[in-house]
């Protein structure tokens, strides 16, 4: 058994300082049990904990570390930028450099604004949509997570789903009631909502491939159907690519499925591991922002030079090497996702694998998962046992059934084989 003494001590101190011992809920391992290792450092595909144990990383800081940890060009870019001071609170050329790179990957983003998190990106996009339409209501989908702003915490995914909190305490009823949470992959539900609230819906926001209820791909024609419905009813179509952007393709789901969005939100990879987000899209909407227009939105650290440097190094590398990177991510992810699923099948354990590129979930159950209520039927106790066994074997999966696993370009054959071997042992332990 691996030693976890130092992590245990750090956890005890953390519990005195931080609610639940953490600064973001899912890190607490509440739904899978066991003790969360404290990370000391990471390199490539591996995390090293405070006791020196090594893990293959399948959450990649929840998405950003697509090029692997401490990727030299990113480290060098941050070091170089830091020598010129960490922040100015004034405009820099780096913002335009990253902005042009983003535009090259997302040609539909005519104008954009940098923020410091995905939460800010979606919150601000919603504000723009309400200003543009003069309407109050928004439609989101059950199990989709768009950060922790008040109006978006209704029937959300990620830690909200993991901890079983359908609507957060502290969000006023008046605010929550403006958010309609509908089942994902159900166009009829959206048609009905537009009929029920004519002229009242400002926007439809979604994760175009859901990651925060576990991985759930959109059904045939679903995204296109939403685009048509929003256009017909004068609502904005907001595609939240905080998780999928630069991961499922260089131009995210917008490119992969060829969709047209009014506003797009980005985060995670765009900051190369530093705090960064972005919202952008059609000029007519983005020009409503102050100082041009009446929608206020701002940030002391928006466009922060270290975040810009890490983002330029990351997105720049992805763009330059896209023809190698994305096929490799697909190949490695397929090998891991299908290899583990085959081990489950051999052991007679029912698992449904949902995967789009380097993003997937093994749902513990035997029926298809196309929306949140189907995901919620998964055997979370079986997932928890699997998670604990994998961790003990040196494979760190996202610690919830309702989160997608990720990998990056640093994962290769060695990691594929080690992961499948760990899964074989985990499933054998369950059936023994
Ligand atoms: N949108 C999506 C799709 C996300 O996955 C997340 C974070 N997991 C967010 C928004 C919120 O981003 P952040 O945690 O940076 O606030």
Automatic annotation (TrEMBL):
<keyword id="KW-0413">Isomerase</keyword>
<keyword id="KW-0963">Cytoplasm</keyword>
<dbReference type="InterPro" id="IPR015422">
    <property type="entry name" value="PyrdxlP-dep_Trfase_small"/>
</dbReference>
<dbReference type="InterPro" id="IPR015424">
    <property type="entry name" value="PyrdxlP-dep_Trfase"/>
</dbReference>
<dbReference type="GO" id="GO:0042286">
    <property type="term" value="F:glutamate-1-semialdehyde 2,1-aminomutase activity"/>
</dbReference>
<dbReference type="InterPro" id="IPR015421">
    <property type="entry name" value="PyrdxlP-dep_Trfase_major"/>
</dbReference>
<comment type="similarity">
    <text>Belongs to the class-III pyridoxal-phosphate-dependent aminotransferase family. HemL subfamily.</text>
</comment>
<protein>
    <recommendedName>
        <fullName>Glutamate-1-semialdehyde 2,1-aminomutase</fullName>
        <ecNumber>5.4.3.8</ecNumber>
    </recommendedName>
</protein>
<comment type="pathway">
    <text>Porphyrin-containing compound metabolism; protoporphyrin-IX biosynthesis; 5-aminolevulinate from L-glutamyl-tRNA(Glu): step 2/2.</text>
</comment>
<dbReference type="InterPro" id="IPR005814">
    <property type="entry name" value="Aminotrans_3"/>
</dbReference>
<keyword id="KW-0627">Porphyrin biosynthesis</keyword>
<dbReference type="Pfam" id="PF00202">
    <property type="entry name" value="Aminotran_3"/>
</dbReference>
<comment type="subunit">
    <text>Homodimer.</text>
</comment>
<keyword id="KW-0663">Pyridoxal phosphate</keyword>
<dbReference type="InterPro" id="IPR049704">
    <property type="entry name" value="Aminotrans_3_PPA_site"/>
</dbReference>
<dbReference type="InterPro" id="IPR004639">
    <property type="entry name" value="4pyrrol_synth_GluAld_NH2Trfase"/>
</dbReference>
<feature type="modified residue" description="N6-(pyridoxal phosphate)lysine">
    <location>
        <position position="268"/>
    </location>
</feature>
């Amino acid at each position: 058994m691996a030693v976890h003494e130092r992590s245990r001590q750090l956890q005890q101190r953390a519990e005195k300082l931080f609610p639940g011992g953490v600064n973001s809920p899912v890190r607490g391992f509440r739904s899978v049990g066991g003790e969360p290792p404290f990370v000391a450092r990471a390199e490539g595909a591996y995390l090293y904990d405070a006791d020196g144990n090594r893990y293959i990383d399948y959450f990649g800081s929840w998405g950003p570390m697509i090029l692997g940890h401490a990727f030299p060009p990113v480290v060098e870019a941050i070091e170089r930028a830091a020598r010129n001071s960490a922040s100015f609170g004034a405009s820099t050329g780096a913002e335009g450099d990253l902005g042009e790179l983003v535009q090259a990957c997302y040609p539909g983003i005519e104008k954009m604004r940098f923020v410091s998190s995905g939460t800010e990106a979606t919150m601000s996009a919603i504000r723009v949509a309400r200003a543009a339409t003069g309407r109050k209501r928004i439609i989101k989908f059950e199990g989709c997570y768009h950060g922790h702003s008040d109006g978006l915490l209704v029937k959300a995914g990620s830690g909200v789903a993991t901890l079983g909190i359908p609507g957060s305490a502290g969000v006023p009823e008046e605010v929550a009631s403006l958010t309609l949470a509908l089942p994902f992959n159900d166009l009829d539900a959206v048609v009905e909502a537009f009929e029920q609230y004519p002229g009242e819906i400002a926007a439809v926001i979604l994760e175009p491939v859901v990651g925060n209820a576990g991985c759930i791909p959109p059904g045939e024609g679903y995204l296109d159907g939403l685009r048509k419905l929003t256009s017909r009813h004068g609502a904005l179509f907001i595609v939240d690519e905080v998780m999928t952007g630069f991961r499922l393709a260089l131009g995210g789901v917008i490119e992969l499925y060829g969709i047209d969005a009014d506003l797009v939100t980005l985060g995670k990879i765009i900051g190369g591991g530093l705090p960064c987000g972005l919202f952008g899209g059609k000029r007519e909407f983005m020009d409503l922002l102050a100082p041009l227009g009446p929608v206020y939105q701002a940030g002391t650290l928006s466009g922060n030079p270290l975040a810009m440097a890490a983002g330029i190094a990351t997105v720049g590398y992805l763009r330059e090497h896209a023809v190698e990177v994305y096929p490799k991510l697909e190949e490695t992810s397929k090998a891991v996702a299908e290899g583990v699923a085959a081990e489950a099948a051999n052991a007679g354990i029912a698992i449904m694998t949902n995967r789009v590129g380097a993003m997937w979930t093994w749902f513990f159950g035997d029926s298809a998962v196309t929306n949140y209520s189907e995901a919620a039927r998964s055997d979370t106790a079986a997932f928890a046992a699997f998670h604990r066994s994998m961790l003990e074997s040196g494979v760190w999966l996202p610690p919830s059934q309702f989160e997608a696993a990720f990998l990056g370009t640093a994962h290769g054959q060695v990691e594929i084989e080690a992961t499948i071997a760990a899964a074989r042992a985990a499933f054998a332990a369950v059936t023994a």
